[in-house]
Amino acid sequence: MAEHILFLTGKLAEKQLRRTIEDMAPEFEYTVHVLGITVAALMTADMIKRRLTDTFGADRILVPGRCRGDLDALSQELGIPVERGPEELNDLPEFFGKVRKRLDLSRYELLIFGEVVEAPHIDVPAIIRRAEAYRRDGADVIDLGCLPATPFPHLADAIKTLKSEGFLVSVDSLDPENLLLAGRAGADFLLSLNEETLWIADEVASTPVLISTPHADLDSLDRVIAKMQAKGRPFIVDPILDPIHFGFIDSLVRYHEVRRRHPDVEIMMGVGNLTELTHADTAGMNAMLLGICSELHVRHILATQVSKHACKAIKEADLARRIMLAARESNRLPKHIDDGLMALHERAPFPLSLAEIQELQAAIRDPSFRIMISAEGIHIFNRDGLWSDNDPFALYPHLGVENDGGHAFYLGVELARAQIAQVLGKRYAQDQPLTWGIHGRAAEDAPADPNCYTPQGTTLKASRSSPCPLPSMSNNSKST
Fold this sequence. Notes:
Blueprint: E1 4-9, H1 11-24, E2 29-34, H2 45-51, E3 60-63, H3 71-78, E4 82-84, H4 92-97, E5 111-116, H5 124-137, E6 141-145, H6 155-164, E7 168-172, H7 176-184, E8 189-193, E9 207-210, H8 218-231, E10 236-237, H9 248-261, E11 266-270, H10 272-275, H11 282-296, E12 300-303, H12 313-329, H13 354-362, E13 370-374, E14 377-382, E15 385-389, H14 392-395, H15 405-424, H16 458-463
Parallel strand pairs: 1-2, 1-3, 3-4, 5-6, 5-12, 6-7, 7-8, 8-9, 9-10, 10-11, 11-12
Antiparallel strand pairs: 13-14, 14-15
Domain Pterin-binding: 93-365
InterPro entries: Dihydropteroate_synth-like_sf, DUF6513, Pterin-binding_dom
Protein name: Dihydropteroate synthase DHPS
């Protein structure tokens, strides 16, 4: 027997909800019930408890994604499961088709070496602060980058202090003295040993990262690999990723060839030669590079955050490695897994068409302004009309807020957000900040708990001192 789902909604969204469900041609049975409320997003668990007198024989109830309150308690009260749907009604098909199959992103196999560049010029407390920041962003190993012909008198102290703080440590240098000192001070990895400096591996317990001399000479790399295998010691191989127009394609081929020759060795890729040396957003580059690593089973990367445009490279690589592992293990494309690497654009930026927005405006009976965007432009409307343009300044004469500074300021902020979203192709929801992928996921900005009611915001506070009614988050909602 097919599952029966009860959809609770508001008056404004009822028609679109029915149409969306019909277009899905669902295998389940359903009932759409208007809960005696105009805007669906205003619905709360307490309101449902008071107003819902019939569950229509449903097996479960789906409420709007912005519905606040304790749904577990409500489920116990009603005797059937009550769940939140997506925040936007047009996301309902994906909710039923893909959200239930969310992949586990808690796992990864690739280790991120976060390089503290120019470490000789930074004192130990500053190195620790940098290391802690890198660890928060996802780095597994802190790499101390040495500089040619530059003294590093506090190298041993830095390693010992990092180790005492629970960090894995690598040291990146071509100076045998630095590498030997680092190994004796307790470094876990040494970057990089070649045929001439391989003797250092016999002097210390650190795991060496092997390179060839010159770096494009795979025969040289084969020889150092063979020597380390004969010793029975763990090691990592770095075929060296070169920048674009300076051997990039050849270096990719080299990585492929090393994997072909040595199916079981551990390999490292220094992704900074792409992220640092290409003026483009690094999220996409990290996704591509970590995809290459996933296919070749490269399980170590060296990431840097020197250039200002690459200041989130470690955080991006952390998410990318999780996405790629989940995609590979489930034998699927790295799509519809997580949107954290989509900072500028979104998969479905415009939930409603202009025709649907016009249909919504025709049902409005109050003076509060709603703001929405579509492929056609920015739209602001209330019961008195709908005005559309790509330029927020062109909309100002229609708003009638010349003598209401607070309301004018509010509408200015929202229209600016709407313009940014419309130009970039991002989701815009009135009274909500724009999302920027993982770059908007600050640790201190924890996601709202849907079981708790949203605290009074600036819009509501301002409305108490303003003669003109201000819109709330719910005024633009078309959620289920």
